[in-house]
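W.,

You were right to be curious about this one. When I first looked at the sequence I had no strong expectations either way, so I just let the prediction run and decided to look at it fresh. Below is the sequence, 214 residues in total, followed by the output.
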Amino acid sequence: MRFSLRSVFTAIALSCSVPAVASAQVVTDASQIQPGYYRVEPQHTQVSFTVLHFGFSVFEGLFSGASGVLRLDPRQPEASSLSVSVPVSSVLTTNSKLMEELKGSEWLAAGQFPKAEFVSVSVKQTGPNDALVSGNLTLHGITHPETLRVHFLGAGVNMLDKKYTVGFDATATIRRSDFGVRMFIPYVSDEVELRIAAAFERQDVAVPAGSDDR
């Protein structure tokens, strides 16, 4: 009996226990998002950061364990709002010694300032699936205005937990010196590039403003 590569790949696909997600199940037009109140889905939300390290390398790390609330109105995007926080002690890099240093008093002082928080003050739609979300970022005990460039990725029922979920990709550039974190500037860049992978699950009841309980 002779087998072709095509027949082998077909057999593998048919035997897969996880069904493929049909594209029709996820909408990619932001105007079709279900309005309402959402909570951060922390398992698939993370904040990554990038700095230039001594001019030799672009070094990356991330934060996880976010919580927060999103009020979303696709018909009136400017009426939407966001309040989110992330534990500073969740900082993760490939260097365990560096992770402990970043939590310490010379850097993020996680013991004294355990959370970084962002609270929106305005939302400006810039395209069908894009917006600028301006707000106040509190980090290291200092609050400073910052703006997120947000792109809507998709919305639909998550096939694993059956919850209606929306997902966004957001970026921002901040200066850590604005928040009193000046260690090793300029050898480690003052500018920090942030990228946020954000997932939110729709709630059946309204979530109080400022609530980030999970």
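Here's what jumped out at me. Residues 115 and 164 are 27 Å apart (CA to CA). And, maybe more interesting for your project: The longest strand covers residues 142-157.

Coffee later to discuss?

I.
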